[in-house]
Amino acid sequence: MSEFVARDKEFESRVRKSFELQTLMSTIGARMTKVFPGEVEIELPYRRDLCQQNGYLHAGIATAIVDTACGYAALSLMPAGFGVLTVEYKANFVAPAIGDLFIARAVVKKAGRTLSVCSGDVVAVKKDEEKLVATMLTTMMALRNS
Amino acid sequence: MSEFVARDKEFESRVRKSFELQTLMSTIGARMTKVFPGEVEIELPYRRDLCQQNGYLHAGIATAIVDTACGYAALSLMPAGFGVLTVEYKANFVAPAIGDLFIARAVVKKAGRTLSVCSGDVVAVKKDEEKLVATMLTTMMALRNS
Amino acid sequence: MSEFVARDKEFESRVRKSFELQTLMSTIGARMTKVFPGEVEIELPYRRDLCQQNGYLHAGIATAIVDTACGYAALSLMPAGFGVLTVEYKANFVAPAIGDLFIARAVVKKAGRTLSVCSGDVVAVKKDEEKLVATMLTTMMALRNS
Amino acid sequence: MSEFVARDKEFESRVRKSFELQTLMSTIGARMTKVFPGEVEIELPYRRDLCQQNGYLHAGIATAIVDTACGYAALSLMPAGFGVLTVEYKANFVAPAIGDLFIARAVVKKAGRTLSVCSGDVVAVKKDEEKLVATMLTTMMALRNS
């Protein structure tokens, strides 16, 4: 599925353990649904208390799930003993974030020793149809665990 | 304070009413503390349930408050009868988001008829000292209320 | 090849005519090699006088060709009577831009009435091998010709 | 003028020597007009052969001068023995780039050991009046000279 090979055989458990530590993800009800080398997927059911003024999912929450997916996509390719930090991101919001479920899908575009570049999309799902609502391009940094 | 003049005298109440409709802002405990023509400030006390894996405020939440501040800074300069939508943003995270309180400050850099460009910073406050943790550059769009 | 359908049958000649007006493109020696609905490709042979301090192609020139490709990918889907303007872009530089030839490939991710979102890559070609050197995410605006 | 202190007393000559190596800058006729710790200014007289389809300065060229100014603003604060590379940037184009002269002004927002964040503006000058045409937010990387 992915063209990448993980350098750490334990990459999935390492990614999932770190995700469990993200209190925001449980606060908003997000689940990590896929972890492959260089690819991560996170799902978030729509909730009325996470919205902007029109009842759409707030851009910051769409950003939070796709940023998290991008970060862990990058981490999945790093050697053991490293953590990941978001250096920066850019996101475009291309349609109102309205639907029953949101899926953030992230892939690594370039895995570097220090910096990795990832891209990710957020789609809204309604009656089994997916619609692109946001797209992100981001830089992640590897940090040796202290 | 601001170099801008609002075209709608009711800009502050219009901005504050829209902010009240953002359920995410009350969910996370954010308050709108300043509304001037072309300038908005939002505060968020630190909460342990809004964090990433190291206990820092999640980038998505820092983004949510500064995006919201930027959007309302843009809206404050729009004529009555218009709403605002985030087209896109880019944010850099320059220091760990750790502190007792976070303040997002946004200003309009260019107010256009359709598109406005805003910039915003997020500082972390600890013992009355402020530290820059994130900075954003964003494009906002005016939408006639239907 | 492309999933898009052009609304203007003359899209290719319209795009190529506009490209011919870009004096920068002829100054640097860039050629438009492909124009499909929603997809454009531009090639630039390496030149020693377009470089940064290490002899790599300058980021601004890599940006110029992929911005131009993105803009015309967006224009290819617009109705007759419209022109295109770059609202903003973000680019990551993932490897030194060194090679005999650079190819910028752009696709439309979301075609809107006013705003379109495009993504594009720049690859460096050396001995028939391609290497990704830059990737862009951008917002383009449709402007009615006056 | 600047709040920064250079760690390398020779920062100005180091920056100017590197700028001299950028062949693109002499190709387009750009001059480095100011070098302070954490601040750099570059000027470019308008030239008809650097334009997009409407006769405005091409976004890629506006980007090239402000990227270069940002990079050298970052380099001015780095210790001796380091060079600088652009990791990524985002730029907004807020008005047509038309004028007799363009000035790119860059400042460091956060100087880090590995990564620095800079912002920069490009103004167009016409009859001694300045108008903002583009604004950039960028990440620069320090690289030890080999």
> Roughly how many Å is the radius of gyration of chain A?
15 Å
CATH class category name of chain A: Alpha Beta
Between the first and last Cα atoms of chain A, what is the distance in angstroms?
A: 33 Å
Q: What would CATH call the homologous superfamily of chain A?
A: Hotdog Thioesterase
Q: Flag low-confidence runs of chain A.
A: none
Number of discrete helical segments of chain A: 3
- Tell me about the largest β-sheet of chain A: 6 strands, antiparallel
Instruction: Indicate the overall shape of chain A.
Output: elongated
Task: Determine the oligomeric state from the structure.
Answer: homotetramer
Description:
- 4 copies of one chain form a homotetramer.
- By secondary structure, chain A is an alpha+beta fold.
- Chain A has a single domain, classed as Hotdog Thioesterase (Thiol Ester Dehydrase, Chain A).
- The first copy, chain A, is built from 3 helices and 6 strands; from the N terminus they run H-H-E-E-H-E-E-E-E.
- The first copy, chain A, has helices spanning 11-21, 23-28, 59-75, and strands at residues 31-36, 39-45, 82-93, 101-111, 115-126, 129-144.
- Chain A has a 6-stranded antiparallel beta sheet.
- The longest helix of chain A is centred in the middle third of the chain and has 17 residues, at 59-75.
- The radius of gyration of chain A is 15 Å and the shape is elongated.
- The model of chain A has no long low-confidence stretch (mean pLDDT 96).
- Chains in contact: A-B, A-C, A-D, B-C, B-D, C-D.
